[in-house]
Structure prediction request, 407 residues.
Amino acid sequence: MEKKISFIHAADLHLDSPFKGLSDVEETLFQEIRQSTFTALNNLVAAAIKRKVDFILLVGDLFDNEKQSLKAQISLRNAFQELQRHQIEVYLSYGNHDFIDGNIYPITYPDNVHIFSDEQVQSYLYTKENTSLAKIYGFSYERRAVTERKIEEYEKEDTDTPFHIAMLHGSIESNTEHDTYAPFKLGELVEKDMDYWALGHIHGREVLKEKPMIVYPGNIQGRNRKEIGAKGCYYVELSEGKQTIEFISLHAIEFQRATIDLSECETIHQVERAIINQLRELNNFVPQLLDVTLISNHHNIIEWKNEHLLEEMIEIINESFTQQKNWIYVFRCTVKNTSPSSEISLKGEHFLGELTTKLEHFSPIDYLDELFQHKDARKYLEMLTKEDEEMVKKEAYELVIHELMKE
Prediction:
């Protein structure tokens, strides 16, 4: 009889994420947003039960913070108990966000949960009907940062077991976009001769290699404007000589981007109609948080922005679109003037030239340090990226020039 197993590979649940940068959203919506990581967890459990999987792999950062909230711990325990009622095992490891030493009040999970208890790579044997089917390897972060090359500790054991699966919360050592933890080279994973590498830490979904399968499932719920699109897990089937994977969406709320061309709009009321028409064309199956870019080749778009007309218009549109079941909320609106004349050159010895030069060299973060260091305010704020700083500088430039040119 052919031996086979099926499982779900998920990572980076980040339960009870604070959703920084969204605190100005209307309270009812914000509570739904805050609940979204828990809803995604429930969707994960439902998917596992529906597919009748043998087990689930959870590869690090189950919680958003090492000081795990009681709500997050109890929600996870309840999820595990539901899985136990359907004879589904769980293998989990902790990552850099929920490292073991940071949680001084751990909760006891049911017997179907198998936890990699420290930073030494170890293995669990999965059996079904008294038959050994899979060896599952992994480790947990005891400290916030594991910078050692843990890949060197993975060694295939017990060659009589048909399937070997490795869990690793870390990143390719050449990846400069994220903090590099437990670094590895892709070739090193291939050399270990595992049947499947279940990765975590990187929130973007990606299949790095197909033979063997080396997979990042991404996180199960987007939490900011950089984590757009569908979020979820992979359903995996392994049989002797064959492997298949399928992505399953789990997100309760989706972050998305939209670009709306207002070049044909001559009045602010035409702007309202253009935005509404675009939003109505969105085919959203879950609520959406929208990062909108408004573009126009007319300078009136800058005037509408500086006179706060666009801001008022977005508020009115949000009030309308948040009344529907799968609501849409524009949480960020950026304006871009595409006219060649929008790049005004004012450099020179005169006052405007000096002002322009100073605007080019000022750093917004110098004026925001005190705010970001405030113990209460920083709970709700995301640090500015280089892209954010450039946008602030550009907006400041446009506002000052617009006001001066009016005079």
Notes: The two ends are 85 Å apart (CA to CA). The longest strand covers residues 328-337. Residues 73 and 106 are 8 Å apart (CA to CA).
